[in-house]
Structure formats: structure tokens, C-alpha cells
């Protein structure tokens, strides 16, 4: 496929996702705010290094954003050097970041006036599944626009589920991460309690994994990133706290009481405050240990 794609945001996820698109034959222009990353990654994967979001978007049929937040997506689209200044009518924006549904709806409405379509297509599965092209992709927007995106999405994900209108995929993604964050947190608390009782934590993980307490954290995170004390899963604590804020925003916007979800968000937010910025999300375990006096 020779479709030209502008790709903005070459972080933990964006880098392997962009690499898969190039390997599949798409012509990529890539940009990251970190110029050294842009140059280094472009050279490593065989993409063109763009000098600005506008440069990355110029001449593209599809623009993909994989950025920390909706606020940064807007920042990258707007302004003299922004991507919108480079996109032609008929282009399609695919926001694969984990964003805010309301913000996504308003961006889409605004750029529709310029003849530019948009879908939200956030992902789940982390860095390892980004590398293998086995992400779970959620897609929100007009069916015809998702159809146009599909050839590219298929290179990055093994599951593409259409969630409804624009913004619905961002709501779904935030709610997925709420469930994931809750599963991680309750699992860590159980390990701390068990350890004080005299149970071995690695043995506990083995038992959970063949029992009904099993979840993605017990299977893929506790031994690998917590018991190993590596805390390097590649998904930031700051990003998880952002996602929980989005989920609670959806709860508030729909007047849904969710006390357990709110407590979960408070705990992750507390970890961010105590541990400081730039931590991996698996470091939540250290915050739980501090609270427990372990
Ligand atoms: P990251 O922090 O590793 O990467 C973000 C990249 O965006 C960085 O390279 C940064 O330099 C760049 N950036 C920031 N501001 C910019 C700007 N104004 N212009 C251009 N580039 C800018 O984040 P990530 O882990 O790759 O996550 C990206 C998105 O995907 C987030 O919304 C996150 O919540 C979501 N996500 C992450 C994971 C994961 O496991 N890491 C999984 C699923 C979804």
C-alpha cells in the first residue's frame, strides 16, 4: 500500500506502530516534539523525518496522532505550523491517542468544516503488542471513514471493534483502563495482605492465574514488572491517571454514580503525587507498599 501517512507522536507506542506501517509499505512522514527522536526513528524505520506537524501532514491522505492527551492533539493540529495547515480537503485524521470523548467530538466537528474527516481509534495491549501488530483497536466514527482507515489499522491491530459514533472509542478506551487499573490495584493489595499472612507472592500469582482472581495484571504484570522490581512496563503512571480522569469525566457526564471507580482514581492519583512524575504505572505497587508500611 502506497497510501501516504503523516504520523505524529513517536513515543513508547508511536514508534513501533509507525515501524509496522513502514514495513507494510506505507509512505510515512513522521514527527515528534523531540527532534532527536524524529530523526533517529525516521532513519531507523525508513520514514521521512518531518520538521513540523504541518510538514508531516502536507500531501497526506491520512494523518495519525499517537500523543499523550487530547489537549496535545489540538495543539499539534492548530496554528501556523500545525497539521491542519498542511492537510488537504478529503484527508482523514485518525487519533489513536487515549483521548477525551467530548474534546474529540468538538475537534471532529471543527475540522469537518475544512472537509477533513476524523475517527478516534485508541488502542490497548501495550508496547509488546504494538511491536507485533496485535493491538486491540477501538474505532469510533462514520463507517465509511473507518473503512478508509482499515488497511492501516490492520497493520497495527489484530482486533478492530467499531464502537459507534466519533468519541465512542475514546470513552470505551478510558473504561477499559478503569477496569485494568482496578484489577491491578486490587491484585497488589491482595499480594500485600497475603505476604503478611505468610504466603509467597510468586506462588500467589501462580494460584491466581489458574483461579477466578486471574486478570491481565496477574498474568502479564505482577511477576514481570512488580516482583522483579523492574517497574518498566512502558506505560506511564501519568498516562494511567489521565485515563482514569477521562473515565470519571464520562461517569460525571452521564450522571453515573461510581464510588469504587472514584476510589480507584483517587488511589492512582495519590501514587502519582507521592512518587512524582515520570514513573511507570506498575510503580503503583510501591505506593501501596508505602501506605501499608511495608
Ligand atoms: P509516550 O509518552 O511514550 O509518547 C508520547 C510522545 O509524544 C513522546 O515521544 C513525546 O515527545 C511526543 N509529544 C508530546 N507532545 C508533543 C507535541 N506537542 N508534538 C509532537 N509530539 C509530542 O506515550 P505512549 O506510551 O506512546 O502513549 C501515547 C498514547 O497512547 C497516550 O494517549 C497513551 O495513554 C496511549 N496508550 C499507551 C499505551 C502504553 O502501553 N504505553 C497503551 C495504550 C494506549
Describe the protein's architecture and organization.
This protein has 294 residues and is of the alpha/beta class. It folds into two domains: 4-164, 3-Layer(aba) Sandwich (Rossmann fold), CATH 3.40.50; 171-292, Orthogonal Bundle (N-(1-d-carboxylethyl)-l-norvaline Dehydrogenase, domain 2). The protein contains 14 helices and nine strands. The strands form two sheets. A six-stranded parallel beta sheet has the order 3-2-1-4-5-6, with helices on both faces. Strands 7-8-9 form a three-stranded mixed beta sheet. Helix 1 runs parallel beside helix 6, helix 8 (168-197) packs across helix 12 and helix 12 (237-253) packs antiparallel against helix 13 (259-275). The longest helix has 30 residues, at 168-197. The radius of gyration is 20 Å and the shape is globular. The mean pLDDT is 98. It binds nicotinamide-adenine-dinucleotide. Residues 8-14, 32-34, 37, 66-68, 72, 75-76, 97-98, 123-124, 126-127, 234-236, 239, 243 line the site of nicotinamide-adenine-dinucleotide (NAD). Nicotinamide-adenine-dinucleotide is lined by residues 8-14, 32-34, 37, 66-68, 72, 75-76, 97-98, 123-124, 126-127, 234-236, 239, 243.
Index terms:
294 residues, alpha/beta, Rossmann fold, N-(1-d-carboxylethyl)-l-norvaline Dehydrogenase, domain 2, six-stranded parallel β-sheet, three-stranded mixed β-sheet, binds nicotinamide-adenine-dinucleotide
Summarize the topology:
Layout: E1 4-8, H1 14-23, E2 27-31, H2 35-45, E3 48-49, H3 53-57, E4 62-65, H4 70-77, E5 92-95, H5 101-112, E6 117-120, E7 123-124, H6 126-132, E8 135-140, H7 143-156, E9 157-164, H8 168-197, H9 201-209, H10 216-220, H11 222-227, H12 237-253, H13 259-275, H14 284-292
Parallel strand pairs: 1-2, 1-4, 2-3, 4-5, 5-6, 8-9
Antiparallel strand pairs: 7-8
Helix pairs in contact: 1-6, 8-12, 8-13, 8-14, 12-13, 13-14
The structure holds nicotinamide-adenine-dinucleotide (NAD).
Amino acid at each position: 500500500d502506497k497510501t501516504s501517512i503523516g504520523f505524529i507522536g513517536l513515543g513508547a507506542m508511536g514508534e513501533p506502530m509507525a515501524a509496522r506501517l513502514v514495513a507494510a509499505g506505507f509512505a510515512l512522514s513522521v514527527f515528534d516534539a523531540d527532534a532527536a527522536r524524529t530523526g533517529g526513528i525516521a532513519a531507523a524505520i525508513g520514514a521521512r523525518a518531518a520538521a513540523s506537524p504541518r510538514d508531516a501532514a502536507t500531501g497526506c491522505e491520512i494523518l495519525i496522532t499517537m500523543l499523550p492527551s487530547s489537549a496535545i492533539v489540538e495543539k499539534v493540529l492548530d496554528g501556523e505550523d500545525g497539521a491542519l495547515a498542511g492537510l488537504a480537503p478529503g484527508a482523514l485524521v485518525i487519533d489513536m491517542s487515549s483521548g477525551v470523548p467530548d474534546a474529540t467530538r468538538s475537534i471532529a466537528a471543527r475540522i469537518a468544516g475544512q472537509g477533513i474527516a476524523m475517527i478516534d481509534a485508541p488502542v490497548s495491549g501495550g508496547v509488546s503488542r504494538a511491536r507485533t501488530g496485535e493491538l486491540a483497536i477501538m474505532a469510533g466514527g462514520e463507517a465509511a471513514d473507518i473503512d478508509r482507515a482499515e488497511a492501516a489499522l490492520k497493520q497495527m491491530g489484530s482486533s478492530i471493534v467499531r464502537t459507534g459514533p466519533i468519541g465512542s472509542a475514546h470513552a470505551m478506551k478510558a473504561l477499559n483502563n478503569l477496569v485494568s487499573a482496578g484489577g491491578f490495584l486490587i491484585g497488589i493489595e491482595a499480594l500485600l495482605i497475603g505476604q503478611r499472612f505468610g504466603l509467597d507472592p510468586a506462588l500467589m500469582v501462580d494460584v491466581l492465574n489458574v483461579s477466578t482472581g486471574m486478570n491481565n495484571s496477574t498474568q502479564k504484570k505482577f511477576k514481570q514488572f512488580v516482583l522483579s522490581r523492574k517497574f518498566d512496563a512502558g506505560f506511564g503512571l501519568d498516562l494511567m491517571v489521565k485515563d482514569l480522569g477521562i473515565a470519571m469525566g464520562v461517569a460525571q457526564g452521564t450522571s453515573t454514580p461510581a464510588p469504587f471507580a472514584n476510589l480507584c482514581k483517587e488511589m492512582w492519583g495519590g501514587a502519582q503525587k507521592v512518587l512524582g512524575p515520570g514513573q511507570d504505572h506498575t510503580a503503583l505497587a510501591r505506593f501501596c507498599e508505602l501506605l501499608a508500611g511495608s
